[in-house]
Amino acid sequence: MPYLLNALSMLIQVAFGAIATLFMCRLAAEATRADFHNPLSQFIYRYTNPVLAPVRRALPNWRRINLAALLVVWLSLLLERLVIFLLAGFLPGAPGLLVLSLADLLDFVLLFYIVVIFGWSLLTMLSADPYQPVVRLAGAMAEPLLRPVRGRMMVGSIDFSPTVVVIVLLLARMLIAAPLLDFGTELVRGG
């Protein structure tokens, strides 16, 4: 029976992760003012707008941050945690679940940017077409994080700024998100 629960948990994580990723892409694309004429940007907009349009009436943007998309990402991660706990036959307390879901949100955002920066730098190293929609969107999303260190981490003609930013994001996962996840787990356990 635990094998079936593990498989079901994995499927739930994939489904909620896909939803969170779609809305995180919308959040990052809007925040970086990614090219709307990009077919990938249009796809993201088309499939997130029916959910975000009503929420944005109550929760408008703050500067360039789409708070409605951030709320949907957080709610999807909260529901994922809740469903997995319920599958295990455990009803978590609200404070622990809220802390865990906020830690999940922070960890998810950090991991999202690690994947975007790594994917973009890999595509550029492989000399992918710079006008390809994925390269353009990933480049637009990665640029705000890379801009502060770009050009400062050069060795010859190689720019190591993506490596430095990924290391900083990995450290943030280890030193900020992981302790917050541990704290939320302790709250859920009641310890």
TrEMBL record:
InterPro entries: CCB3/YggT
Organism, scientific name: Dyella acidiphila
This protein's record includes keyword Cell division: no
Positions of transmembrane segments: 6-29, 67-91, 97-123, 160-181
Protein's UniProt name: YggT family protein
Source lineage: Bacteria, Pseudomonadati, Pseudomonadota, Gammaproteobacteria, Lysobacterales
Keywords (A to Z) from UniProt: Membrane, Transmembrane, Transmembrane helix
Domain of life (superkingdom): Bacteria
Signal peptide: none
